[in-house]
Design a protein that fits this description.
alpha+beta
């Protein structure tokens, strides 16, 4: 099960550097590619606004 980024995302960029498989894309709201995400949770652990959750 991949993680997803909710509309609470502030596009701060913290999660992008934490993803070991580069599954996160930048934008107004960042997006996690579910086909690449390994469900490690590293991004969710560092999100300052808790905008990342299991899909």
């Amino acid at each position: 099960m991949a993680y997803k980024i909710t509309e609470d995302c502030t596009a701060c960029g913290t999660c992008i550097d934490e993803c070991p498989v580069d599954a996160i894309s930048e934008g107004d709201i960042y997006v996690i590619d579910p086909d690449i995400c390994t469900d490690c949770g590293s991004c969710a652990d560092v999100c300052p606004v808790d905008a990342i959750e299991p899909a």
